[in-house]
Specification:
The complex is a heterodimer of chains A (162) and B (735). Chain A is of the alpha+beta class. Helices cover 31% and strands 9% of the residues of chain A. In chain A, helix 2 (81-88) crosses helix 5 (135-148). In chain B, strands 3-7-1-14-11-12-13 form a seven-stranded mixed beta sheet. The chains are: A alpha+beta (162), B alpha+beta (735). At the A-B interface, helix 2, helix 3, helix 4 and helix 5 of A face helix 1 and helix 15 of B.
């Protein structure tokens, strides 16, 4: 498979999950394990452009696929607009859910560059966060959507208004 | 006692600003090292054999088959524990590994180190333990009758014979909540080759981990260094030791680094939970709504081992009346020992449970009196200078109870429908069947450690070519401590360039626990005072009158550039203590607490009464925050804290039957998703703490304390039915 643009090849046991292959064989530990049951979304990566919870997929199922992890989202050291949004809008606290949140948000914005708040919430409903109460995560995605459209991001709600 | 340093407007990203998180970029890029991500060449993987019984006698343990598994380097049992083999945050009553008796489901019996995680888990399963199962004690009332208790606490204030014109009684229950941080327990222990070990593990309090490892295993203190490590959420779950001692045993036994990561199901039994509560209340009042007497009996199930039950029970009892004036009080508190899973710290720490009791009672009393529920609370609101009705302590800190109530009431109620129906994306409900309800709750909690504990934090501030470097062992769990400590150093020093660096237990004194909403106040106090003293020493040494990023100035002229100060190697270490507290006397009285904080919540819910489904539309709040040091972090704590309170109100419960957790996974233990999150509008009430640095009060716990009871009250208001238990389940509404 290709991971973050680099060809990768390894012998793995048939039962090895994609997330364990990424974390333990490739040492790409930015993809986190939260629940092991496909519920929390901390392990979300892109497989051929689609968001996938990598604890629900065997590594061999990704044979030949193009996999992108959180480590492959920034380009030339610059933060991706979604990463920038999570930073600027305080969309993270402990940060454990953040890589999965970012991968789901990037996938959402690739299909819908002007999501409503409701569409954002539905778009990343498969990702749990235990710290933030989600409000700033919505603002982070709105920030990123505007940035990716080349527009000025909306003011944060703590910057006046509301 | 310290006086706040004046705010220096020349400093950027100081107090009152919201600088971007310094740990943001590594967390956003997947480069931040959580305990799960640690790696050491040649390391082994640990796993734990756990009891399948809640109570049993161990007849025999055969490690032979496990040891014979290929790739296994060690299988250790109680016989291999080198020291006394007992640990506990407050009382060392818990065995590192069970030797002859099992006291809860999931209790560790053996530990394994192997070359990969799967082999380790297979070997742990291959340990043959013969048990004689015994009937578990799981009913907390039976435990009370059998005097199986960790602590009893009685509080008596005022005339015990007085009665009110109006009396309301109620019985209330709180289910078992789990902290459910997204990262499970994890760690790595690395032997140093000379009998010592470096421990990197999930924690809220590395010095307590270190001392428990040392005492349990009979080591010398200098043999164990505990290092602050990346933590994927905490909320109380990381205050107690779990895998720490096991990791050190395996590393010292094998001479190799050993890593261990709990799976989610194991995490649910590997850490303590929020205490489930049973509470009996009787409130007496006059016809015009003045509280006359409050009687309460509060029974908390501490489970099999002590953990922090004693302190959690104390909080539940000291705040059993809430932030209200009343002369006559009788509180009986019992923290029982059973064969249920051990309970300990979770955000709110006892104050959550009794809040549901006393606020349900205040609503019941308001209904009985025909009075507006907020008006009843306002008439009885406690204030600075009053005595806390339980402890009789005179409250010296600003206590804006009435202000919180009035501010909350001024937030407009929503009009119009919520876009999300009860039942979420299933959309099973016709909108015409939905009923709306509004409910209130006001909560109070202590900040910092209480009852005479020596509560302190050490911090060091150094001037280096990186700027001002704050060294601390205080754990960042996501709340933003690394941001705010640097802000304090900048403002107190007058230097814009400041960073926070975590150091291990051998290199700095304890910062205490990241719990009890205490680090901003107490580690913050240490950082502020160390910075202030450092600034004064530098100015005195050079005879200057101003310090900034350029160096020392005198009468506007630079007399010692920063490069010179850095060469001089300035540093200052300070240990901060909050005003001393006392243990309770026989009536539960004393100067028990150092500081207090208030929050008031108003919940709006939509309920489908036929299916028993609830949508929490919004939770608005007014919170007493002392002074806001970082507005965005405070907002984040409040929104996240409310979410956990909403979780306890309507969905989060560990289902425990005969001592066995029936839902130890995220499929069956329900956490709020982004579609369950209510809108939040908040008003921050700023009246500086009487001792907190820059006037700060802790802000982490109050959002969780009264949001649960507000949601329950709103559901009652919607359906017109008594609900005496949280979480409120569909059958409680629909059947």
């Amino acid at each position: 498979m290709t991971v973050n643009g680099q060809p990768v090849s390894a012998e793995v046991e048939p039962r090895t999950l994609l997330v364990h292959f990424l974390r333990e064989d490739l040492r790409l530990t930015g993809t986190h394990v939260g629940c092991e049951t496909g519920y929390c979304g901390a392990c979300t990566v892109h497989v051929d452009g689609e968001p996938v919870k990598s604890c629900t997929m065997f590594a061999v199922q990704a044979d030949g696929a193009n996999v992108t992890t959180i480590e492959g989202i920034a380009s030339n050291g610059d933060l991706h607009p979604v990463q920038e949004g999570f930073w600027e809008r305080h969309g993270l606290q402990c940060g454990y859910c953040t890589p999965g949140m970012i991968m789901s948000s990037v996938a959402l914005l690739s299909k819908n560059d002007r999501p409503s708040e409701e569409e954002i919430r539905h778009g990343i409903e498969g990702n749990l966060c235990r710290c933030t109460g989600y409000h700033n995560i919505v603002q982070a995605v709105q920030f990123a959507a505007a940035r990716m459209r080349g527009e000025e991001p909306p003011a944060a709600d703590w910057e006046g208004g509301e | 006692m310290t006086t706040p340093t004046r705010t220096r407007p020349t400093v950027t990203s100081g107090i009152g600003d919201s600088p971007l998180r310094p740990d943001g970029v590594p967390k956003l890029k997947g480069e931040f090292q959580y305990a799960q991500d640690l790696w050491s060449e040649g390391m082994l993987w640990g796993a734990t054999t756990r009891s399948p019984h809640a109570r049993a006698r161990i007849v025999s343990i055969d490690i032979g088959p496990a040891l014979a598994t290929g790739g296994v380097h060690a299988v250790l049992t109680a016989d291999d524990v080198p020291g006394p083999g007992m640990f506990g945050l407050e009382h060392p009553d818990q065995p590192v590994l069970a030797s002859d008796e099992i006291n809860y489901w999931g209790e560790p019996v053996a530990i394994v180190a192997a070359e990969d995680p799967d082999t380790a888990r297979r070997a742990a399963a291959a340990v043959v333990v013969e048990y004689e199962a015994l009937p578990p004690l799981t009913d907390p009332e039976e435990a009370d009758r059998a005097d199986s208790v960790f602590r009893r606490l009685q509080i008596r204030s005022g005339d015990q014979e007085v009665t009110g014109e109006v009396v309301v009684e109620g019985y209330y229950e709180v289910g078992t909540q789990d902290q459910a941080p997204l990262g499970t327990e994890a760690g790595l222990a690395v032997p140093d080759g000379s009998g010592g070990v470096d421990l990197y593990a999930t924690s809220q309090f590395v010095h307590a981990d270190q001392s428990q490892v040392v005492e349990a295993l009979g080591l010398r203190p200098e043999q164990v260094r505990s290092h602050p490590t990346g933590v994927g959420g905490a909320f109380g779950a990381r205050e107690d030791v779990n895998l720490h001692i096991h990791l050190v045993m395996l590393a010292l036994h094998t001479g190799q680094p050993v890593k261990m990561v709990y799976q989610r199901s194991e995490s649910f039994t590997g850490h303590v939970h929020r205490h489930p509560a049973r509470m009996w209340y009787r409130h007496h009042a006059t016809r015009d709504g003045k509280l006359v007497r409050v009687e309460a009996k509060i029974l908390l199930d501490g489970g099999a081992y002590a953990s922090t039950t004693s302190a959690v029970l104390a909080n539940a009892c000291y705040f059993a009346v809430g932030p209200y004036r009343v002369d006559s009080v009788l509180v009986e508190g019992i923290g029982v020992k059973t064969n249920n899973p051990p309970c300990g710290a979770m955000r709110g720490f006892g104050a959550v449970q009794s809040n549901f009791g006393y606020e349900s009672q205040m609503d019941r009393l308001a209904a009985e009196l025909g009075m507006d529920p907020l008006e009843l609370r306002r008439r009885n609101a406690l204030a600075t200078g009053d005595r806390n009705p339980t402890t009789q302590q005179v409250i010296q800190t600003p206590l804006p109870v009435a202000e919180c109530i009035d501010s909350l009431a001024a937030i407009p109620l929503p009009d119009g429908d919520d876009p999300i129906l009860p039942g979420g994306s299933g959309l099973t409900t016709d909108r015409s069947h939905i009923v709306r309800g509004v409910g209130y709750s006001v909560g109070i909690k202590n900040l910092g450690f209480s009852e005479g504990s020596d509560d302190y934090a050490e911090a060091r501030v150094r001037l280096t070519d990186e700027g001002a470097v704050v060294e601390t062992a205080a754990i960042e769990v996501g709340q933003g401590l690394v941001t705010v400590l640097a802000q304090m150093a900048r403002t107190a020093l007058g230097i814009s360039k400041a960073i926070v660096r975590h150091v291990d237990t051998s290199r700095i004194g304890s910062a205490g626990s990241t719990s009890a909403s205490r680090q901003t106040q107490i580690s913050g106090g240490a950082v502020m005072e160390a910075s202030r003293r450092l600034r004064e020493r530098i100015l005195a040494h050079h005879g200057g009158d101003e310090l900034d990023d350029l160096g020392v100035h005198r009468a506007g002229e630079l007399i010692a550039p920063m490069s010179e100060l850095i060469r001089e190697g300035w540093e200052e270490t300070y240990t901060f203590r909050h005003p001393p507290t006392t243990p309770p006397d026989d009536d539960g009285h004393g100067d028990i607490h150092a500081d207090f904080a208030i929050a008031a919540h108003r919940a709006v819910v939509d309920v489908d009464p036929e299916l028993g489904l609830v949508r929490v539309v919004r939770v608005d709040t007014a919170q007493d925050v002392g002074r806001v040091l970082n507005p965005v972090s405070v907002q984040g704590q409040i929104e996240g804290g409310i979410m956990q309170g909403v979780g306890l109100a309507v969905m989060e419960e560990l289902v425990i039957q005969d001592g066995v957790i029936r839902n130890p996974n995220f499929t069956d233990y329900l956490l709020p998703t982004i579609l369950d999150a209510p809108d939040v509008e908040m008003l921050l009430i700023e009246q500086g703490s009487w001792w907190g640095p820059f006037g700060a009060k802790g802000v982490g716990e109050p959002p969780t304390i009264s949001s649960t009871a507000a949601v329950a009250a709103a559901i009652r208001n919607a359906i017109g039915r008594d609900l005496n238990r949280v979480p409120v389940r569909p059958e409680d509404i629909a059947l």
